[in-house]
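Pilot study result, target chain (798 residues):
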Amino acid sequence: MKFRVTARTILHLGSDLISSDGIAFYELVKNSLDARSPEVRVDVLVRMPFETYDELLRELGERREPNERGIARPSFTPRNWRHLRDTAIDAVDKEAPEANELIAALRDADNKREFVAALREANRIDVDDDGTGMSEATLERVYLTIGTGERARERDLQASRPPVEGEEDHVILGEKGLGRLSAMRLGDSMEVITATAADPTWNVLNINWNDFADAGDEDISSIDVKPEVGAKKDADRHGTLVRVTALTSVWTYDKLDALAREHFSKLVDPFSRRKLPLKLTFNAISVEIPPFSSFILDHAHGVFNATLEWDKWGRPVLSGMMDYRLRKRRRPFEFKGVEISTLAGEASAETLKRMGAFKLEVYWFNRRVLKKIEGIGDLAAVRRLLASWAGGVSLYRDGYRVNPYGGPKDDWLDLDRDAFSTSGFKLNRGQIVGRALISKAGNKYLVDQSNREGLKDTPEKEAFVSLLGATMEYFRGFVVQVDDEINRANRVKATDALDRFRAEDARLEEITPALLALLQLSPEGRRLSKQVREAIASLREAASDVETASRASEQERGRVMHLASVGLLIEILAHELYRATAGGLKTIASARTSSDPKMTGIQLRVLDAQLRTLQKRLKVLDPLSTNARQTKEEFDLGDWVTDIVEGFAAQNSRAGIEFETSVSPRGSHRKVRAVKGMFVQIVENLLSNSVYWIKQQDKYERSVVEPEGDGPIGTVRVLVEPNEGRVTVTDDGPGIPEDRRELVFEPFFTTKKQKQGRGLGLYIGREIAAYHGASLTLGDADDDGYIHSVILELGNDD
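Predicted structure:
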């Protein structure tokens, strides 16, 4: 048994696989570029309205419908022949190039076959190049072989041998051997006229795709397609002309102009020096491909760059610079190893390595502060130019675009959805002109889908998209943070305003008697003195209202911080309690079905241990209740922290992580009077962070080397120093880089898996500590510049 390929399959591969005219053109142009043509010319010739052409073919039974099995041809009589011929001639655009030739061909047609042939050639698309061309043997051996790997082999050969002078900028774009079928998207017939420099004549290949529709279920080999010898050529001529006729859709100047602006202008990386050697015409009228006005980038309000590469030890490093030009703030950044793995959706080290290196470059424009730019025009012109190039992050491989990423309808990095959830809708696609750069040599596992609609769904693609999205989210966080810092700095605090008012009020109190006495000297003055007294009373009443509101605001801040912290803990505990109750129910179910009393006893003891653990866990949560959260009570610092850690450790016993609690000096005690819930909120959050990053580090390291033994994957150490009123949580996870010492306490800063971390834990912990007169800081960095400890230090009034 052998697989057979039916003739109609070729139709599905072409017209159905290529989903847009833009991609079809790209495939044809790409073939010319692969042939090393210094220039590619695309000429669209329309001599008859498509509506007339289409109606005539339908009346003749010569119009192929999508997916139809064959073509039904009605009877053809001299009467309707004359009528249709006259209709066709009358419809010809007399101003179009070669209009007279078309009229002559229609008039001279002696039979239906000749008339249909002339009609089909009324409109055409030519893709003409001066590339290497194809010999007759190449046409037959390569061009007529669907899915050939000729270009892929050429690319691999180029990569394996030393560079050849003049080839450093040549990129081989084709690899699947399907590009030639894209002509089927544009028209029902195709003629290829090609030759190499060594050929004495042109080689001609004619294909009528309707033949494949007519053949239907017959074997594809039943369609005879064979190159023919064409006209003689000059010795120095070479190249290929692909002529598509019997066009299947309407073509106008405006349609080609829209393709030039939306597709061809972005086909080549607009930031690079490489230019697209493409010329477009419609009925001999030039269609401009808009050049990129690169100097608009000089006016961007923010510029963000990131590069992923591997260091000399083979570890991934993501580094870059964030430059918020509008605010004159810059910040470098660097992520390594397990952090990158986490940002990339917990990708393994091997997946990251296969994914390969990339560069990301983003220019951000705040539309609210846009203004006219010299050389571009007024504000409206600037906005129009930005709208034509903005769209998010476009993807370029070896300088050529991977569709549809960064297109008007493609939000592959979820930029708009994420921006919508932030203040000011920052870094949405309409504000961004950006690019991500990859290569075929460095990113072999990021490959195009056969229909050229993006990358294939693979673990490498998933990691790539996740990492780019997380990096963009990091950029957005920086912008939001800087804006918030400046807004806070410019905000007048209620307490400061009240202090200034009281000082001015005291001065006013001194001069008021003299002022009122002076005003009593005249009737007008007596009227004014009454207004002065009323104004002073109103100001003092307003100041009292502000003071009351300030106290209420501070109380509300405390409640909000408490609820936010509880929310974070409840989210963690809900998962733990679900697991505990599920385990208990499983134990009960097992005991019910067991007929062995001894086994039942064991199972009941297991259930008892599970319930005790759950009870201890809930006991720790009690101080977080609404009634208890502000209640100060006296307790021993070491005993309470030990209870918190033991309760947390019990629920995380399966994590393979050791928890060690020690009091130094041993046996020392310190009675504190404080809100017990504060310790639960802060310490549990620190423990959760430690567990998360130890797990992430273990997962990443296991993807690099095989683990040795079955010991713990990490340790969390909690040191209580009663005499100093200090609690230190230390772990042997990846640590925090020294340059992020204060950054990690900023709200919404996180390097956890995208959409998983909220970036609020340490921020809320510090706020709660400060609210209770304590402090939360990071410890000293190790020799490699990483911090592994967080310190909670009590105030003097505990």
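One observation from the pilot: The chain has five domains: 9-47+122-287, 48-121, 294-490, 494-541, 631-798. A full batch analysis is planned for the follow-on phase.
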